[in-house]
Amino acid sequence: MSLLQVKDISHAYRSSKRLWRSGSLTAVLSKVSFAIEPGQCLGLLGTSGAGKSTLGKVILGMERPRQGRVIFQGHDLYNVDPQTARLLRRDLQVVFQDCYSSVNPRMTAEQIIAEPLDNYENLTRVDRKRRVGELLEAVGLKAADMQRYPHTFSGGQLQRINIARAIALKPKLIVLDEPVSSLDMVNQTRILTLLSELKATLGLSYLFITHDVKAAHVISDSLAVMKEGRIVELCSDKNQLAASTHPAVCELYASVLPEHPRDRLLGREASGPTSP
Question: Transmembrane segments in this chain: where (predicted)?
């Protein structure tokens, strides 16, 4: 059985009312379907406005869809009793794009990471500190960092804290919503490596939402491409995506800059083939 099944999800937002007329509906998702298997990562690609983040909110239970079903561990997320919903929520975590707005600046790293532990487990103070220390070390930080505040960390370090919070309850699935797009290239590579290592050691599954083809290829097992609220390409093998001729896929690959600056056009047509 698939860990997550997204079945024919459609969603729309209603614009604001004007005088006597009710607001019109604007479709943001249209019959989106896919599945994620245990221990796998699906990379969800698309340009801004494609509907990726809205879909992530639907999967997380934050945005009820107008149509369709989200089946997580065999349960319909939007048709379960409160107790089951709470248990499912434990196994479904998230890491957002903006590492700074994702934390309370007045809380220490210990308090941030321990939030889910406090919500679901009854730990003694000693055990709580031990668990937080272990989680910090698991993401490449030090146990002594638990008393520091967010402003004392770099962006890459703070995103590691957000990841530590996400894995605190040993979830089955983590939604990664553009988790490296706000970081510099060095920290992007480090965070992607960390996520890959955690996936292997903890048996995690990911939905990796991104517009970055390179990042998606690093961490994903399968890839899907969204355009205007629809899945336009879905490849069970990530290496198959490059062969697609769909305009949305071609647009994503065309946006990837060559590794070396000399191979970039810099806003002008190339005068000829570039030497190796």
Answer: none
